[in-house]
Amino acid sequence: MNVYTIYIGDDEVTYSRFKEYLDGTLAYAVNFEEAVDLIADNCGDKSLMVFYEKRESFEIESHAIELFKSKFPKAYMVLVYDNINKGELLQYHKFGINDTVHKNVTKIRLRHGVEFVEKNQEIILSSHTNQVPLEIYKPPVWKRSFDIIVSVITIIILFPFLLLLAALIKIESKGPVIYVSKRVGSNYKVFDFYKFRSMYIDADKRLKDFINLNQYRDFEDFADFDYENSNKIPFFDKFMSDIYVSDQEIVPESVYLREKKIRQKNNFVKYVNDPRITKVGRFLRKFSLDELPQLINILKGDMSFVGNRPLPLYEAEQLTTDEYIDRFFAPAGLTGIWQVEKRGISGSLSPEERKQLDIYYAHNYNFWMDIKILFKTLTAFIQKENV
Question: Which residue has the higher pLDDT, 321 or 6?
Fold first, then answer.
């Protein structure tokens, strides 16, 4: 790899594990002073990735990080932590930390991070420099014209096929053909987001079934959970504050919090042959055909063919800070720059890396970048995993 990696800290156990994960290429320094000398002597023209161990008070560390970044402004700094709160995290990012990993990070996640730095150094730098804040997004004439012309032509050509898909969905299971959810797009505008329905309308009553199919579940986490009563919750009444709504899924708060706990403990939750998904829905998802109704969103102007993926309300709420707000002052899109980065490989991009790519797109999108992303999307739209 054309990346010089160095670990700064005094936890030799964590350093040794990271070094093993990176095939012995990780340098080591106890403090910034030692690191500066090692980098000056060995980094050369390589990209620089620094794993900095969180260990002292933030006041002391912030000054040291600022000084280090002044010497190596192109360094991609990753905070290695054992415990950290949201307030600390925001402060570290403000003073130059680009990403964070837990001390018990997996080998795959660590190696993907280094690969990301190697391949996207320009993007990383541009998304973390002091750029002029973006103004309210207005689609350029070329982009809006492209969206209208191509969406109209595509809808006309695919109309018989769309009718066939709608008929198959209706024949297999009761319920509406189109699933509508609220999404946050450009300028924080909330709009109705369309997809072909791929789940049974009683998906909530199948919670117990799909939990039992989770490959990575911890059975103890579900030992005391009463599924029978959870399924009797009146979903569409005045108690909507106790309900979490996302893409084609409505779950009680207790279930959402329980699954969140498991995801945090086991890194991710994965289901095989999810019983909530219809047979037609499984086919639609495999080939991304459930996304076709978003052609209407594009024609209406809610979205563009290429942009930053519109987010569910609860996700968008987490990205209202100054460091991430720019991703919303850009077109919302059917596909985007990070979707074509190793699409379909679980864990290939961390949430922070995705945010960086969104911000990069917001500041740098143009016609030829959009064409390139569309081409990559068309050649990689088939998902590799049946999940």
Answer: 6
